[in-house]
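Entry 14. Ran structure prediction on the chain below.
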Amino acid sequence: MSATPPDRRWKRPLAPFLIQPHAAPIDAACLAQLRAADVTRLSDLVGRMYTCAPEVRPLVLPALPMAGPAFTVKCPPGDNLGVMAAIRRIQPGDVLVVDGQAFTRWCMGGFELLKVARDEYGMAGLLVNGAWRDMAEAQEAGIPIYGLGISPHSGPKLGPAELNVPVACGGVIVSPGDVICASVEGVAIVPRRSIDAVCAALSVQVGGHGIHGFLDEMEVHVAAWQPQGDAA
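Output, structure tokens:
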């Protein structure tokens, strides 16, 4: 008879604990350009497929902007062993993206983890498809956090997890090295393969003739819907 009975609360999955290498560095000038861009314009450029659902919101208020390459972590719902493994593997400027499969009954981590990740490893901020805690401390320290919710309870650390793999957050697939851009407006993801195109579009001077010129254009669209001869 086994001296240690199996833990019937947990079925050990066959999927291994996977740690993939970092994505290649992104051109510094492109990163600087994306960091300076308004998230609303970035959202227009990357489209709805790469704009997180509004349920993903700033958890530290007032909202702190953040931008940087995604360092991704995929975890079982509510389990944060993968987060523990990620902290010391973050590289300067990375945004930690934790996919807890939208589980919010308890948190995926707290302030002390983020403090170490930022102060010792250069983390730019956190995006969590789940919940986090210790918002008062994060606010005081100026650490940006975006996610689905806040919960005070910390869950198990059983694993497994996967680091630097594609993950989901707010209806968007985020791959390692995609650029996370977040502000009070929401979260836009610039896919790595589209960085050059987005930066080129940002470099083009936005033309136009002001809001009244725009409204004049819209009047043309409105008029097209009305039967010929009808007056507004």
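Helices lie at 28-36, 39-46, 81-87, 111-121, 135-141, 195-203, 210-225. Will compare against last week's run tomorrow.
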